[in-house]
Amino acid sequence: MRRTGGRAVGRAAVVLLALTARPPDRLSAQHVALVPQFVVGDYREQSAGFAYGGIGFGAGVAARWRRFTGEVQYASVDYEPDDDGAGLQSFRAVRLDGGLRYALSGTVAVELGGIRREMDPEAAAQSLSAVRVGARLSQLLAPGARVTLRGAYLAAAKFSGGGSAPFAFEVGLGFMGELARGRVRLTADYDFQHVGRKTEAGGTEFSVPIQEWLLRAGAGVAF
Amino acid sequence: MTRAAGIARVVLALALLQSAGRAAWAQAAPSVQNATLRRAVRAYETLDYRQAIPLAQAALRERLSGAERGRAYEILGFAYSGLDSLIKGAEAFRQALLINPDMRVDPARTSPRITVAFDLALKQSLLVRELRVDSTRIVGGQGTALIRYTVTQPARVRVTAVAGTRTIAIDSGVATGQINLPWPVLLPDGNPLPAGNYTVVVQAAAGTSSFSASQPIRIERGSVDTLPHITALPEYQFRPETEIPPRSWRPFGLAFLYTGIAVAGTLALESGDLGDGARRELVAVGGVTLGVGLVSLLRKPAPQPAVANIDFNNLLRDQIARRNAETARDNVARRRQVELRVIPLPKTGVGR
Q: In this predicted model, what pLDDT tens digit does every residue of A95-123 receive, in sequence order?
């Protein structure tokens, strides 16, 4: 499972290199931002007894071209069980979010992307992959300060332990501040994800919901 | 009133008018060198017309200057008119006018018999009187100097400016009465007259009669002043291009709204089976967002571009630039222009 996380990091690095390797004249029509992040997470699955808290690191890369914005977010969080006495196993969650946004106006954008979250060790928690269809509202609070509200439906969710999730949503709140004429970015993003996973055993359907709260705080550069 | 008293009053009134005419004439009279003429003047001033006439005639047979000859004819004109000899008086005045065409009598201070004789002399003579060239400052080719004169009879009049052997035609035509002739002070090729002394000559001819009058003038040339460029228009001031907008609740309201929706969405989606999360992540991000919104509310608003003022200033700058461009073009033309000053000089001779 560690190798899986390494591949994700490698893919993110390739995307980042591909974006930053573009010659300056081609970048003049784009806006590329790279933001390393500190990540705090809370993960719960099946019942209140399976609760984990953790911290980790991450990075976000975003590139804008005309009305389109492509974004990739990587996060690696080491989760520890909230209750040490419950005999739960610690694990690392490596999450990769990617998507393409299209701005309908200066405020509203629609988004199509995906999420992949892999657990290491694999049996410690459910890995997840899904397609994300969402929208976001974005407003300037002040010159260089922007607040963003996100909402998305996670479709076609797949789990390492099987099952389906017809009801899976995300809500997010983000703040971005720009310094040095937009060259430096400070970000704080909150993500809440609820996946109404259902499994079936012996003809009986079981509800095994999954929830994750994630805070990504970062400082990066834009060019 | 008796008949004798009435006659006495008429004689007294005539005597007063005659003495007034003498006074007016005496004020304008030049000094006299010839002794016979001086005696004639004294005789006229003492109302001894019968003595003044032969003395003036005797003086005319002597050697006199032009002015003295004109004075002698004036005495004859006044004396003959005073003795009711209208024809002789008019003839004497005519001779005086030929020597000094600008001679005039004041009707308010002179006996009607004298003014009648004087007017008769004017009508009988072809004269160019009261030739004047106004002192003027003009730009060559743009203004005119004014030449004024009076022609006493319908005549063909030719006006020229003479400098040495060079004669420059100014105007030619039939005229009578008072004439105001605008003169552009240009050569026939359109160039301004060179600087120097000129004589404006007005020649009038009718049948066998002719008369001319002249006025010396000086032409001076100078450069035309150029106009300075402007940096502002009078009564139009540049406006500040930024303005501080009024304090707005909008940033805090947006932060509150977005955070509220995120909280509501989280609470709505959270599953009770999984227990209550700490929601510290939401608190952190929501706190930052609300904090920024609150700071934006409390902070003095940053100056914003005042679009209307910027447009106004741009229009003002365009207008100033346009005026300066016009000034620059005007100055190019002005540097090619010549300022002409026409200065009349004292006359040294009399008409002929």
A: 999 999 999 998 999 999 999 999 988 88
Residues of B within an 8 Å Cβ radius of A: 251, 254-255, 258-259, 261-262, 265-266, 269-271, 273-275, 277-282, 284-286, 288-289, 292-293, 295-296, 299, 302
Question: A39: which DSSP letter?
Answer: E
Nearest to B292 among A42, A137, A145 (CB): A145
Task: Tell me how many degrees the CA angle B144-B148-B149 measures, rounded to the nearest 5.
Answer: 150
Phi and psi at residue B328, to the nearest 5°:
-60, -45
Measured between CA atoms, how close is A213 to chain B, in angstroms?
7
CATH value at residue B217: 2.60.40.10
Residue B17 burial by Cβ neighbours in a 10 Å radius (0-12, 13-18, 19+): middle
Domain count for chain B:
3
Residue B349 in any domain: the answer is no
- By the 8 A CB rule, do A153 and A169 touch? yes
Q: What is the ipTM of this complex?
A: 0.82
> pTM for the whole thing?
0.51
Question: Which domains does chain A show, CATH number per domain?
Answer: 2-222 (2.40.128.90)
Give residue B273's domain range: 242-335
Tokens (6 digits) for A127:
């890995």
Please name the residues in contact with B226: beta carbons below 8 A apart, sequence gap of 6 or more: B331, B334, B335
Please list the residues that pair with A96 across neighbouring strands: A74, A116
**Mean pLDDT, to the nearest integer, of B328-347?**
85
Cα A28 from Cα A26, distance rounded (Å): 5
